[in-house]
Hints:
flat, alpha+beta
Amino acid sequence: MRSHEVNTIDYMQATHDLALTVQQRADGQYIWMMLAAAEPVAGSDALYYRPACTAAVAQPSYSSALAIGIAELTRVAAAGSAPAVA
């Protein structure tokens, strides 16, 4: 698998209300995760997000995972829609 392949979760529907984070899974294993906004909870000011897609392959550094995640987020935004579900 190439380092930029993506695991997509089926409820990612639009390119708005997205966030990007990097998680450390183990020493030297970092993955990016794109998050999509969930429905707001009545009476709450909190923002809720769900995982939308993640890196299929871990990277050796935080900055590498972040750069690849930013590239994927940019690709999704340029396409005008979320990645298709495999």
